[in-house]
Specification:
alpha/beta, Helicase, Ruva Protein, domain 3, 2 domains, globular
Length: 285
Amino acid sequence: MRLHQGCTDCLLSRVEYESRLCTDDEALVLKIAGACRDLLQCSLADPVPAPVIASRVHRLAYRMIGDADPYRSLKRANNEDAMAVSLAVRGDLVTFRDLALASVIGNTLDYGSEAHTVTDNFVEFFRREFAAGLTVDDTDAMEALTSRVVYIADNCGEIVFDALLADHLRKSGSHVTFAVRGAPILNDATIEDAVALGLDRRADVLTTTTDGIAELGLNRDIAPPALTDALDRATLIIAKGMANYESLSDEHDLPPVAYLMSVKCSPIGADIGIPVGSRVALLRE
């Protein structure tokens, strides 16, 4: 999925948000936003998926900020909050569908988007969203394909619920490979986050890039050989979140892909044909 012209304001709002996480110097924030706007305008016509361009912009912002991980405190808080919620609700999570829905609800823990606000009471929010169920529900068809899964993770916080789903898959006889970011970008989970949560004891854990490259989504041109091999052998790819959807939705030479996400912006909703706020477990074969 390519970057839409309307996505630029949202992307630049994230640049300003992450800059203000690190500095109170408003002149510097505006300088960073201006440089990122220029880079974005030069990149709009590039025939690449949206996350490739967004990653360039965030890497520039991080260099100008002088901080390789502006979201580190938020990521830690996300994981702690999600752990507390998971302890409160895990007794209600029994089936593959339950755990997929929980993972989708966890995908709402995402910061800096112009069109999306993070809830202050996640337990209450979780229970309400869980009762509402999935807007798009292909979980039965997904579950039938889970003998060998590559699980492309997204944000911290939600990775706690991803881990519960991985446990369920493993206990059901699935082989699970987790793929996390190769370096910090936004509040996405990295190898350090995965290890801190014990995911390396539940599954094989790989990174989506080599050499510490910070990249959103899955850019197959720079994916490590081990991940490429795992994708080739997978019976199902679980792709969490919108950036992974943007990366893979136009690909045609992959195993079946299960997209698990909360739809937080209108371009993604329009591409799928559903409203913003939808809870999606969408299988594309």
